Amino acid sequence: MSGVQDRVIIVTGAGGGLGREYALLLARSGARVVVNDLGGARDGSGSGSVMADAVVEEIWGRGRRGGAEL
Fold it and tell me: Domain residue spans in the chain?
């Protein structure tokens, strides 16, 4: 993916599904990714950072830059 090298990109809903895949793709392409996911259910209940933290760990484990945003 061209044009993202060293840019900071915020991916909302990045804890799972398509958001997660976009976050990983952008990180592999050299972007600095802010993983944003409140961890709530579809009905708006609950919250937590477990899923977002797991994506950040995966990005860091691949030697890329990323950060969690809650």
Answer: 8-39+46-69
